[in-house]
Amino acid sequence: MPRTIAVLGGTGPEGFGLALRWVRAGETVIIGSRDASRARETAAKIQTAVGSNARVSGDENRAACAAADILVLTIPFEGHCALLKQIKSAIRAGSIVIDTTVPLAASVGGRATRTLGIWEGSAAQQAAEIVPQGVSTVAAFHNTSADILNGDAPIDCDVVVCSDDAEASKTVRALAAKIPGVRAIDGGKLENARIVEQITALLIGLNIRHKGHAGIRITGLPPQAYR
Ligand SMILES: NC(=O)c1ccc[n+]([C@@H]2O[C@H](COP(=O)([O-])OP(=O)(O)OC[C@H]3O[C@@H](n4cnc5c(N)ncnc54)[C@H](OP(=O)(O)O)[C@@H]3O)[C@@H](O)[C@H]2O)c1
Question: Which one of 32, 54, 70, 167 has the fewest CB atoms closer than 10 angstroms to its CB?
């Protein structure tokens, strides 16, 4: 079934990288931004990179949201709650919200190698409390490095997908698997997002220490777990 993915905050490196990979895979993507012209400029960059068959456009976040079935939050934690409240009434019934947000302490002037304690348990659980009823929240892509997503090479990283909606989790795992190199794993309930979000703070510390672009691989599971 044709579907449209809105990447909110897609002007930044993480959203741009995910959008680029999905447009390359043939998906239809709207880049969302607080500024429609910035969104259109970013969409044009993807169009140039992918070619004339690319199905990508840009719009202001709320308008992008109203035109999409799958919303991907790729904004820093400091804007998370406010953006969700701003777009809430524009989210279509039955949509999936994919939350990539890591609540880094850097959001409040602290270190990027530490996370904040979130009252609901995780940024993704905070999102789930804000979105309208009938909209599914899925936590994913916290551990995929923007630097690698923005290149051409396969991603040496597994994507752990957490949600309380099994069907939505399946849809997002299929979307993740469209990115070369990615293996998507059912990470269970949304409450597990707390753990996956925290792994990113560790990866950032490893990147600083060893000057790399660390990802994760989960080993030892049967092949059907990586679907
Ligand atoms: N960077 C990575 O490698 C990486 C990896 C995994 C997960 N993540 C997660 O992905 C998210 C995005 O990361 P990023 O590095 O791309 O972030 P970023 O560059 O700081 O921000 C992405 C975009 O969010 C928008 N934005 C910034 N502040 C905002 C606010 N207060 N309210 C609403 N929108 C705001 C901006 O777009 P406009 O100005 O155009 O609106 C910006 O281009 C973060 O939550 C991060 O934890 C990042």
Answer: 167
Using the mean position of ligand 1's atoms as its centre, give its distance from the Cα of residue 174 in Å: 23
Written as one string, the DSSP assignment of 196-213 is HHHHHHHHHHHHHHHTS-
Residue from 33, 42, 74 to probe ligand 1 pocket by mutation (most atoms less than 8 Å from CB):
74
Q: Quick: pLDDT tens for 16-44.
A: 999 999 999 999 999 999 999 999 999 99
**What is the residue whose two structure tokens read 């609540």?**
103
Within 8 A by CB and 6+ apart from 68, the residues are 4, 5, 6, 30, 92, 95
CA 206/CA 186 separation, integer angstroms: 25
Please provide the average confidence, as pLDDT, over all residues in the chain. 96
DSSP string, 83-134: HHHHHGGGSPTT-EEEE----BGGGGTS-TTSB---TTSSHHHHHHHHSPTT
